[in-house]
Amino acid sequence: MSSVHYGFSLVLDAGMNAAVRAVTRMGIYVGAKVYLIYEGYQGLVDGGDNIKVAHWHSVTNIIQLGGTVIGSARCKTFTTREGRLAAAYNLVKRGITNLCVCGGDGSLTGANIFRSEWSGLLAELVEKGRITDTLAEQHGHLNIVGLVGSIDNDFCGTDMTIGADSALHRIMEIVDAIMTTAQSHQRTFVLEVMGRHCGYLALVSALASGADWLFIPEAPPLDGWEDRMCARLESRNTGSRLNIIILAEGAIDRHGKPITSNYVKDLLVNRVGHDTRVTVLGHVQRGGTPSAFDRILSSKLGVEAVIALMEASPDTPACVIGLAGNRAVRLPLMECVEMTKLVQTSMNEKRFDEAVKLRGGSFENNWNIYKLLAFQKPSQSKQYCTTDFSVAILNVGAPSGGMNAAVRSAVRLALIHGHKVYAVHNGFLGLASEDMFEMEWHKVAGWTGQGGSLLGTKRTLPEKNMEKIVGTIKKFNISALLVIGGFEAYKGVLQLCEARAHYEELCIPMCVIPATISNNVPGTEFSLGADTAVNAAMEGCDKIKQSASGTKRRVFVVETMGGYCGYLATYTGIAVGADAAYIYEDPFNIHDLTTNVEHLAEKMKKDVQRGLVLRNEKCHENYTTDFIHKLYLSEGKGIFDCRVNVLGHLQQGGAPSPFDRNFGTKLGVRGIQWISERLTENYRQGRVFTNSADTACVLGLNKKVICFSPVTELKAETDFEHRIPKVQWWLNLRPMLKMLAKYQTSFDEYVPGEMKHVTKRSLSVDPGY
């Protein structure tokens, strides 16, 4: 592979540095010579020092930085043939025939034009005597792979684009701050977020914050919206100290006329008399530290981009690396671009329903759930109101981010369906002691952004209090249970399900929404709170690394939570660029530890100043955090010193991440929808009765499909001793972690992405989430 040369060029969005790091290191790992192209296409055209050979240490300690260390610039010259001719000359002169471009649809379309003209450009260079026939023949084909960088998440075919999650973090930080001042002063705030042609940021922000009104370009409000909005906010004056309206900068009405934040403000001041303020977020959304999701996404896509370039041939169409169901996939570049343009065409032609569908299943689901929670009122839906049902909602296990968002949406949708809702304090223990109260619509206002568990939660399982729990269910005539929690929630519902043979009161629908920072509940790939915990651990590690800035060479051994599940350590390890992450699922011995110490010592002797080693709290009975710390301290003597840090419960605290707020809101809705359907199906002779296995389920997300898995079936898939699923999907990321840390590992372990076509049909059947 030493004859293969790669060039890397990009435009600016948070998370780009992780992509630069991944492409550079993976390229070097497979034996290629890698060049970094500074200042985007401008650097490609200008050449010279803008195109530099990259080394392993060139991208050390950049993963946590916002922006991009190799710069970005718009380049009008590259849009001309003369500019592309200069770019081709600069690449051929350095032997580069593989180009990885990170940018939006404009940048990627330009790359495809460059690729299609390549042979003609080389022929012109030969004709002008700038290169020889031999050189042109040796570099006769240019391979292009794209990575999508856009905070708008507006590129069709991929679930997420690089930078979008970080932008949501910036928005939610500001929304949280504004909510505090709005409640203090009884004000209404109009927040304008970016999104000239795409409402993704506005939509997810509104869903994650429980905004009272939303304007997005894909779904303009019907005529007369001014009257409806004012009437709705006026009706909420009683008992509400806070109104939040979120508006995408490209918001329009049904006739294409712009709706501005100042117009909305004036409406509220003049018609409703609200003290209203406008906040335009602007470019703050592009800045700041990249989120954990963006760092991991960029790393996944960057590694896959190099593999795609390795496998490319002259007949391979230019592709872009995207994300589908949390897996890297290869997408035909121009198919994606055409579908992306089709969204704008639909909006221009006022086919707004089609525009929403073309944005993908996730966007459509977000929009439908926002409308459901924002614009319906309690008991407004008659679909499920054939009788009185009572639903009890409780939190079980340790607190985690997103729990309160799930409770809020579940309570409100249950009330919309006409159910009576009981909130239970302190899990199954509270259910046994009747520590519960009836929920009302306004009682969950503002819960979405609250960390921890506002209902209170305990790890106590129901088996010790079964009689009392049955008594409570009978006394309050509870028709269904919604249990939000971790492994204890799953195990508790399993115990209740298995006790149905003895207690007919337990023959009711029961649904578990997985919520734990450990992400160890079977039946789902993601649990509520895991994303928040990874971000908290990542931020802690960033600060730990920074603490050694300017000091001598130092290695940090950091312990993470997670029990026996290594998800938190692995994901955090990828997000912070760790040198190693020790987990229970990936067994290791003293030989492995010694090899790792020697490997890190070799890196420290050269250009690396800091090292980071993560250890999951229960990864090994004997190789404790203290043992590993002392081993590194002893073996690294004279080369580096070593410090130890236990992150502890900071991983459980803090405000939920945008993902967990959004995920929790949607899981709460889906849980109640499922419960309402089961209640209707199993209501006979004045009561609910069901003892079938499929009425006690874990609500999970697998790839991008929502699944309701019976707890009795999941029993066979569970390692109860270690409280983890027997098969864990994220272990496929371990080879990437090791390769980017320069460990020689079997390349056969890496699972390359599949090619996925992007058409109107594929977008219309995309389940999204």
Automatic annotation (TrEMBL):
Sequence ranges assigned to domain Phosphofructokinase in this UniProt record: 14-308, 391-675
Catalytic activity, as annotated: beta-D-fructose 6-phosphate + ATP = beta-D-fructose 1,6-bisphosphate + ADP + H(+)
Localization (cell): Cytoplasm
A GO CC term attached to the entry: 6-phosphofructokinase complex
Annotated binding of Mg(2+), by residue: 105
Segments for region (C-terminal regulatory PFK domain 2): 390-769
Keywords, in A-Z order: Acetylation, Allosteric enzyme, ATP-binding, Cytoplasm, Glycolysis, Glycoprotein, Kinase, Magnesium, Metal-binding, Nucleotide-binding, Phosphoprotein, Transferase
Protein name: ATP-dependent 6-phosphofructokinase
Species this protein is from: Sphaeramia orbicularis
